Amino acid sequence: MTSRIIDLNADMGEYADDAQRASEEALMPLISSCSIACGGHAGDPNSMRATLQLAKKHNVSAGAHPAYPDREGFGRRHLVFDPDELEASLAEQISTLEEIAEEEDILLRHVKPHGALYNDAAKDLNLAEIIAHVAKKYILVGPPGSALEHAARSDKIAFAPEGFVDRSYQASGALTPRTEPGAIIANVDARAEQALTIARGDNFHARDGVLSLSVKTLCIHSDSPGAVDTAIAAREKLEENGIAIQAFE
């Protein structure tokens, strides 16, 4: 019997080659929502349109995945921008995706910042407020208990707290930096087990202690090796334990 619902999401439209594009195409039917790169760290109008069409085909909820304007560093470098210039860039990224989504008759539902922007805004309220302002029409996705959540609540924006299936955590609730060993969980079964544990809100082992998270959505990185196998394993683990996969409201 289903006891609760969880969203399973992936960051999409980030492919750099045909192999990664094929991986995204295989991953899309296994998830319930996707965040689409819209030009900051990756993506162009063609990839945005193709990803939106794929999401529509598989009835997957779509949202924007804006980033620091840093294609060279794939949006994973901690950079400092003038606040007005950053807000203008993020607004333009979202607007570009909006225009294509309207042409494809698709309604965007959420905004999830990418990479370093996501991590920085989790701690920096000023940065979080910039993102909340450009995301004001949508559900904002971010870490539970973060500055992003605080900014969303202050601006009366719906917020979807997120956990990660394929990343290790610190006891503070922050992700282990990608520069450190063990930041990415390599074993597919371990990823599926973490998905179930987080979805239940149970305690689990972090790098330096124990924590629990209360989330509405779980992320699988589409560019992580084994992403498709992870989605299959996570779905099976969640559903056999009475947790249904459904896009967040």
Query: What would the CATH topology be?
Result: TIM Barrel
CATH architecture: Alpha-Beta Barrel
Count every helix, treating DSSP H or I runs of 4 or more residues as helices: 8
User: Averaging pLDDT over every residue, what do you get?
Assistant: 95
The computed structural class is: alpha/beta
* Major beta sheet summary: 7 strands, parallel, barrel
Q: What is the C-alpha radius of gyration, as a whole number of Å? A: 17 Å
H-E order = EHEHEHEHHEHEHEEEHE
Classified by CATH, the class is Alpha Beta
N-C termini distance: 21 Å
Say which CATH homologous superfamily is assigned. Glycoside hydrolase/deacetylase
Low-confidence stretches: none
Q: Could you tell me the number of beta strands?
A: 10
**Tertiary shape:** globular
Strand order of the largest sheet: 1-2-3-4-5-6-9
**How many separate domains make up the residues?**
1
Give a nutshell description of this structure.
This protein is α/β, with parallel strands linked by helices.
